[in-house]
Amino acid sequence: MVTDGLIETRGTDLAVSMQHLRTVAADAPLGVADLCDTLLACFGHDRDDDIALLALRLTGTR
What we know:
Oligomer: single chain
Number of domains: 1
Largest sheet: none
Distance between the termini: 24 Å
Shape: elongated
Radius of gyration: 13 Å
Helix content: 40-55%
């Protein structure tokens, strides 16, 4: 989960930004820390809004 501050860019359609987010996330290395690092490296610079990320790793089955 991310807040819009990560991907929302003035002058860019939000749907385009969402697609870019999906592509970057799908290509990111495995692991929640690597995912968050990849997303911040790709999107997290020169932002005017706050950014929050929540990444979970689910393990095991019930």
